[in-house]
Amino acid sequence: MTRPTMEDVALRAGVSRALVSLVMRGSPKVSDLRRTAVLKAAEELGYSPHAMARSLASRTSTVLGVMVSDLHNAFFAEVVDGIDAVAREQGFDIIINTGGRSPTRERRALDSLLSFRPAGVALLSPVVPANAISKAAEQVPIVLVARSSRVSNVDTVNDDGEQGCGLAIDHLVSLGHTRIAHLDGGEGTQAGPRRRGYIAAMTRHGLTPQVVSSEYTDVAGARAIRGLISSDSLPTAILACNDFNAVGAISALEDAGLRVPSDVSVVGYDNTSLAALRHVSLTTIDQPRNEFGRLAAEALLQRVRGERTEPVRHLLHPSLVVRNTTAPPGGDR
Amino acid sequence: MTRPTMEDVALRAGVSRALVSLVMRGSPKVSDLRRTAVLKAAEELGYSPHAMARSLASRTSTVLGVMVSDLHNAFFAEVVDGIDAVAREQGFDIIINTGGRSPTRERRALDSLLSFRPAGVALLSPVVPANAISKAAEQVPIVLVARSSRVSNVDTVNDDGEQGCGLAIDHLVSLGHTRIAHLDGGEGTQAGPRRRGYIAAMTRHGLTPQVVSSEYTDVAGARAIRGLISSDSLPTAILACNDFNAVGAISALEDAGLRVPSDVSVVGYDNTSLAALRHVSLTTIDQPRNEFGRLAAEALLQRVRGERTEPVRHLLHPSLVVRNTTAPPGGDR
DNA sequence: TCTATTGGTTGGAGCGCTCTAATGCTGTAG
DNA sequence: CTACAGCATTAGAGCGCTCCAACCAATAGA
Question: Do residues A185 and A279 share a domain?
Fold first, then answer.
């Protein structure tokens, strides 16, 4: 179970270890004769370079660390895809690791990532305190995705939640809705901007905002709707804080004998794969997740190459995806 | 951006590098006096050990590699949780990396993982060819999750898909169904055992199996149902190959004016978070995913500690989760 | 008093690689 | 025939750490 080293390959190919090193790194200054001999020997021995030894000796790393706060959320999967694509294009590998939305575990996950001395680290919607992030940023380039931060030495990539909610309200208003409630995401990431965007858009249209306290889960969405129904303050349209919440809301509406969208329209946020299911077919706000990842990786690699030291803050434009949960109010009933 | 080394800490604490090493590894044979001095110096310098150098020097690793074939699938998130929990208990870290269900990318992902010389590697539902796995297994302990294999030197953890489908059929039969179709997963992982389990259970009950070709997606599930309806061979109950397929099936049934479960009962497989949504509330077969992860990690660590060299093959028992998509046939209509 | 013993501490080799500077070699010009 | 490029190749140091054997008190036993 002990793997062959560069020395073994060198011996077998009848050359020096340094030459093998050159071949492995694809250097042009090696004769074809030797190159083929080395590659042949490596192949025969099943040799592959030892990334750690390489990184130790070269004092550089070709690894980007990615800390995913919650692996259960498919949102991050697409962000990771974006990071992965860019990283691979530029010869970097990624290692992922997860924090399970617990500050303690995230802390440990981050430390573990840092102990590999990666070239850069992307934190996807982390819950660790800002000062921990800032401290890490002194040692390695850091980019924050789906979490804004005023930390001066990190880059950030976010969607413009205010704008997204604006799009949703514009859509509902254009359908003729005037009574539109927002199921609020509470303390959740990005809940603030979304709430602000909702209020701003309602005000802009001369309508009265109605913010209902809720959370990022389907259970919470259902509970909020039941609250509205029992207090007899159900509007004709709902802007949920995310897709899960929206699905919970729809389910509670249907349980109450109301129909979506003819009686009540519902808009989600995030355009998760759930929303796209025909059975659900939820009108929602799409975030360019893959683009998040790509930009995050680019930001990191720019710093790695020393092209930039000033922090960059990307604010991406979300877009409206109209499906079957929105219609004019008091529809075909 | 250059981080302090053990040498720096030693210098500052007025001791040797070796002593710092002992302190960092928590050795008992260090006087309290020196220990506190070292820890203080390390703290002041913001020192943390270099995992790669450590692993290189000690020729051991405290890292388990995990290759997730598809990050978009929440199934794996729970498996990873299980692995992570066990690994952490035993002082190991995990690094994840993804193959996107493409053999080429998985190959590269595996290589990248191996280049870190991890203590062991877990492959979650990989699509790489068996010989690549077997070759990797010569270098490092490997465990396969949700993919069976006859490769002699790897451990495997699977659910008993035959048994799971048996549970589903037993449930439907006990409700009074006699015409039950199976929407088949085609080439998908575990589709074979599920199909076999379905056929065996039907036969056992003296019923005629009806296998309908389909795939692991909601679109495919819907298509299969439309086919059944147009050929006028719709049964009273459906056992889908997985939850996505089941949701597609339900949606097509509803589109056709049929009601679930009063007209047709539907059972899924996997108990994804989707199935648990109240809006969906799908009767399905649950796999002990977290347990998959725990057992996979245990298997790896046993090999790491040299406690076992014989391969182990875990076959876990799935269980039936009854929700609201199954009822007696010809119900309350 | 001298030798063991013990517990704390240290120097140095070496893990598998990269990188710099030096080496040998061929070919061309003076 | 010497000089000097220019190129392919190599020796050797060193990356940050662990581990072993050696070391050095200080105490115990004879």
Answer: yes
Both A274 and A194 in one domain: the answer is yes
CA distances from A285 to A161, A197, A242, B51 (A): 9, 13, 9, 42
Query: Residue A27 maps to which CATH number?
Result: 1.10.260.40
Q: Is residue B329 one of the residues assigned to a domain?
A: no
User: CB distance from A150 to chain B under 8 Å?
Assistant: no
> Does residue B298 share a domain with residue B149?
yes
Is residue A332 predicted with pLDDT exceeding 50?
no
Contacts of B140 in chain A (CB under 8 A): 1
- Same domain? For A13 and A23 the reply is yes
Chain B residues near residue A250 by CB distance under 8 angstroms:
279
Q: How confident is the model at residue A1 (pLDDT cuts 50, 70, 90)?
A: low
- b/e string for B23-56 if b means 16 or more Cβ within 10 A? bbeeeeebeeebbebbbebbeebebebbbbbbbb
- Give the closest-approach CA distance of A205 to chain B in angstroms: 32
> Which chain A positions have a beta carbon within 8 Å of B50's beta carbon?
56, 115, 117
Residue B184 resides in a domain:
yes
Domain of residue B80, CATH code = 3.40.50.2300
Residues B200, B99 share a domain: no
The letter for the amino acid at A56 is L
Percent of chain A residues past pLDDT 90, beyond the cut = 82
Q: How far is B116 from chain A (nearest CA, A)?
A: 6
Domain that holds residue B245: 161-287
- Write out chain A residues lying below 8 Å of B81, CB-based: 71, 100
pTM: 0.89
If asked whether residues B152 and B300 sit together in one domain, one would say: yes
**Does A178 lie at the interface with B, CB-CB under 8 angstroms?**
no
Consecutive H or E run containing B124: strand B120-124
Which two tokens mark B51? 């995992």
pLDDT one-digit tens code per residue, B101-116:
899 999 999 998 998 8
Per-residue pLDDT band for B1 (boundaries 50, 70, 90) equals low
Of A81, A96, A250, the CB nearest to B95: A96
Query: Which residue from B115, B248, B250 is facing A50, i.e. has the nearest CB?
Result: B115
- B180 falls within a domain: yes
Domain count, chain B: 3
| Assigned token pair, B20 | 């710092």
Residue B321 lies inside a defined structural domain of this protein: no
Orientation of helix B130-137 relative to helix B103-114, angle to 10°: 0
Rounded average pLDDT over B254-278:
93
Q: Which residue is nearest to nucleotide D12 (CA to C1')?
A: A18
Q: Which residues are paired to B180 by β-bridges?
A: B237
Residues A172 and A252 in one domain: yes
pLDDT, tens digit, 9 for 90 and up, residues A261-287:
999 999 999 998 889 888 899 999 999
Q: Which residue is nearest to nucleotide D8 (CA to C1')?
A: A30
- Contact (Cβ atoms closer than 8 angstroms) between residue B81 and residue A68: no
Contact between B251 and A50 using a beta-carbon 8 Å cutoff: no
Based on the domain organization, do B187 and B274 belong to the same domain?
yes
- What is the residue whose two structure tokens read 């130790």? A56
CA of A294 to C1' of D19 (A): 44
